[in-house]
TrEMBL record:
GO terms for molecular function: ATP binding. The keyword Zinc-finger does not apply. This is ABC transporter ATP-binding protein. CDD domains: ABC_DR_subfamily_A. It comes from Streptomyces prasinosporus. The lineage of its organism: Bacteria, Bacillati, Actinomycetota, Actinomycetes, Kitasatosporales. Residues 14-244 form the ABC transporter domain.
């Protein structure tokens, strides 16, 4: 299988220090420090509005008013050389409804690498169709697909360039359990067989166990990072959801102590 990453695995794919993002007039990410290891699936988990999409936008270089350090694949986030090395799938599927699935992929493949020979491009399109299990729908108009199928077309677009880093914003939202399981299997095969790094956001805590590593976020801050098992052990919890709630309580208690000693 194709290997997506040629870098040593010990260098993190993403390294953030004192990362702050202001949206409107308000800081929505405040002094974050974290790493995303290469070749692993890192889950970005936290409640709605805690800043997951903002953090992902900062990583892919589309977010304004970012300060602090944010290095991605060894370059500052947003560096032009990163464009072809990162695949980004937003929450809103970005495909043309009046083109078939294959036409969408042909179109994006041509934009991504205009110089590529037609046969190689067709090979790429067939590969990503198989990856997201849409070969049987290749000639359907994208506009006639279900929401979950359209999301998978967006994911296929992101896979066209064999990116080293895939940033997926809530990719399993609204999918039935079978499709969710299949997508997680694909994520694992991308990481384990091809060496890709995945940063996947979710506000569903039961997806946490499917990740190698977690960044737990709340209100613009990273509460904790580590493997699901380590976070459960550290907090004496049975599930990541309970671990998260204990970490929230711990953070609130620490804030009260700090307040009372001022
Ligand atoms: N365009 C904007 N202008 C100002 N504030 C914004 C804007 N977009 C988002 N925000 C604020 O930034 C904060 C973080 O939003 P963000 O979309 O990153 O959260 P999220 O964790 O991804 O939420 P969800 O899970 O609902 O997608 C929220 O408080 C939100 O209100």
């Amino acid at each position: 299988m194709m290997n997506y990453s040629s870098r040593p695995p010990e260098e993190p794919a993403v390294h953030a220090q004192d990362l702050t993002v202001v949206r409107g007039s308000r800081p929505v990410l405040r002094g974050l420090g974290f790493t995303v290891p290469r070749g692993r699936i890192t889950g970005l988990l936290g409640p709605s509005g805690c800043g997951k999409s903002t953090l992902m936008r900062a990583v892919v270089g589309t977010q304004a008013k970012v300060t602090g350090t944010l290095d991605v694949l060894g370059r500052p986030a947003g560096h032009p050389s990163l464009r072809t090395r990162i695949g980004y799938v937003t929450q809103a599927p970005s495909v043309y409804g009046d083109l078939t699935v294959r036409q969408n992929l042909d179109y994006f493949a041509a934009i991504l690498d205009p110089g590529k020979a037609g046969a190689d491009r067709r090979h790429d399109v067939e590969r990503v169709l198989a990856d997201v299990d849409l070969t049987g729908h290749a000639d359907s108009l994208a506009g006639t697909l279900s929401g979950g199928q359209r999301s998978r077309v967006s994911l296929a677009v992101a896979l066209l360039g064999t990116p080293e880093l895939l940033v997926l914003d809530e990719p399993t939202v609204g999918l039935d359990p079978v499709l969710r399981r299949d997508l997680w299997q694909l994520f694992h095969s991308l990481a384990e067989d091809r060496g890709a790094t995945l940063l996947v956001s979710s506000h569903v805590m039961d997806e946490a166990e499917r990740c190698h590593r977690l960044l737990l976020m709340r209100a613009g801050e990273v509460l904790a990072e580590g493997a699901p098992e380590a976070l459960r052990t550290r907090t004496g919890a049975d599930t990541v959801e309970t671990a998260f709630l204990r970490l929230v309580d711990e953070a609130a208690a620490a804030a009260r102590t700090e307040e009372s000693t001022r």
